[in-house]
């Protein structure tokens, strides 16, 4: 079977991770009986994955610009798929491409299924316009897919509600993330980040880049409360000041109010240093407003670090009872949840052990890739 994988839009952040891990697993054996042609963004690290059964086709960068995407999705990609003589098409970027054969679409655009005002409230007009164009494209095309893969039951339910897709058109294939082979952090000695730990008190990690939906601005009123109540709580951010103007504004405001010793930005941390970072903290906090699937939850649970996060369906779908939940737009709720968790030693231990057990039950990337390949095989057999 000849499979064409359209991963051209997966060039950054979580999307890029999904694309790279899926294709790597295919190259290493998950699709050994098939030939795969992958359309990928140039310069995003995909070229190194080429193998005997996996051919990499970098897409011209200009096709990923928002104003050229209609041409790319409706004309350029279909022509390329025909040229490659694909039997089936796996579209990994939310949008179904015009194709005469069977097509599997991977949906992971949370803004399309979270239209509430809190999720959209902080988005600038330009990003709002781009997102609305993307959602309109998804709405117009997704019904034409033979099958739509989602990463959680929550996403499946919301897609059915938002776009009227029938249950039988949707398939839940859990996500996976790449984790090191070492055990969790508990019991290991020392960390290069120990200097960040409070001698008395709690140090919490927010391991995230800056995106408006991550809701990091809520740390400003939270830090004011911490200072007013003279609490020994420190929150670590991992932001690059150059990420976007709003990120710089947040960091400048923290400094201007002298809150940057409560909310401390340590800058970006590469994956090799993440285990040491988790060894230096007491918990992971993420006040996000929407996600399709956050690997940060899995990382924290894997390392035995308690999770504090938003009381939202996407978070509960991933973490279940192994996290402490708060209202992400209410700093009082966030502070109360922090204090309640760390005053309950039994609850802390349940979060640690339950989180590890939950991660252990999740599939690996080779298993996830095999699920996608199996779906494509079924679609091909069905014609």
Description:
With 383 residues, the protein is an alpha/beta fold. The chain folds into two domains: 2-176 and 364-382, Rossmann fold; 194-360, Glycogen Phosphorylase B (Rossmann fold), CATH 3.40.50.2000. It is 40% helix and 15% strand. It is built from 13 helices and 13 strands. A seven-stranded parallel beta sheet has the order 3-2-1-4-5-6-7. The chain is globular. The two termini are 12 Å apart.
CATH architecture designation of the largest domain:
3-Layer(aba) Sandwich
**Number of spatially distinct domains:** 2
Secondary-structure element order, N to C: EHEEHEEHHEHEEHEHEHEHEHEHHH
CATH domain topology of the largest domain:
Rossmann fold
Helix content: 40-55%
Structural class: alpha/beta
Shape: globular
- Identify the CATH homologous superfamily of the largest domain: Glycogen Phosphorylase B
Residues in β-strands, percent? 15-25%
Quick overview:
InterPro entries: Glyco_trans_1, Glyco_trans_4-like_N. It comes from Motiliproteus coralliicola. With 383 residues, the chain is of the alpha/beta class.
